[in-house]
Design goal:
S-adenosyl-L-methionine, elongated, 25% strand, alpha/beta, Ribosomal Protein L25, Chain P, 232 residues, EC 2.1.1.193, methyltransferase, 32% helix, single chain, Alpha/beta knot, 2 domains, cytoplasm, transferase, 7 helices
């Protein structure tokens, strides 16, 4: 199994690289790397470099990296999800799946029927989860977890040309049609659904409805299904 480590300041020309503290601890304490081991480094912005472990300390790991290469494993359709997050344990599972699928960004939405808005600690755990999922999946581009926003502000500020809401509206859009676009924004509501005012705000802002059939899905299931359709 290839050992991958996140180095946000990866030198593109190669050379000596010290792993960031958390990555160094994982490499030395969990993976137990040794001098001479081959590893892969990535910067979360599309670059990766092959490297060799040069030195190992208690909480330190230095590598000699080759010239970094731009390796694009992103889907053709850039998917931007606005999601009223489920409970924390399910939110962490959600971010893992969306990162693996290649979603470009996730904006946590606070909706009228949101039971409890996301805490700062949850957002930070989700951002760390993105890194771990990129390491596991071979993705070189980090999914961007944005700051939480109220539903009305989200609908008003989304700038993608194709804007969809997971809710039946008079104007219904096909996911098969959406996947042909280069940039798509999709809003997924809380377990209690969108309020009438929120649906009206979305429609007024140019959002069109999409449905996933006759059954009702959990938030994380709906998000994963929509993302999977759009990126494949």
């Amino acid at each position: 199994m290839t050992r991958r480590y996140f180095v946000p300041e990866l030198p593109l020309s190669g050379g000596l690289v010290a792993l960031p503290n958390e990555e160094a601890q994982h490499a030395t304490r969990v993976m137990r790397v040794k001098i001479g081991d081959d590893v892969t480094l990535f910067d979360g912005r599309g670059h990766e470099a092959e490297a060799s472990v040069l030195s190992v300390g208690r909480n330190e790991c230095q590598c000699t990296a080759q010239t970094a290469a731009a390796i694009d494993r992103e889907p053709k359709c850039r998917v931007h999800l606005g999601v009223a997050l489920p409970k924390p344990d399910r939110a962490r599972e959600l971010i893992e799946r969306l990162t693996e699928l290649g979603v470009a960004s996730l904006t946590p939405i606070t909706a009228g029927r949101t039971q409890r808005g996301p805490s700062e600690s949850l957002i930070e755990k989700m951002r760390r989860g993105v890194i771990e999922s990129c390491k596991q999946s071979g993705r070189n581009q980090l999914l961007e977890v944005r700051d939480p926003i109220k539903a009305a502000d989200y609908f008003r500020t989304v700038d993608q040309a194709t804007k969809l809401i997971a809710h039946p509206t008079e104007s219904v859009y096909s996911l098969d049609e959406a996947k042909l676009q280069s940039d798509v924004a999709i809003a997924i509501g809380p377990e209690g659904g969108w309020t009438d005012d929120e649906v009206s705000d979305a429609v007024a802002a140019g959002f069109r409805g999409v449905t996933l059939g006759p059954r009702i899905y959990r938030i994380e299931t709906a998000a994963a299904v929509i993302a999977a359709v759009l990126v494949t």
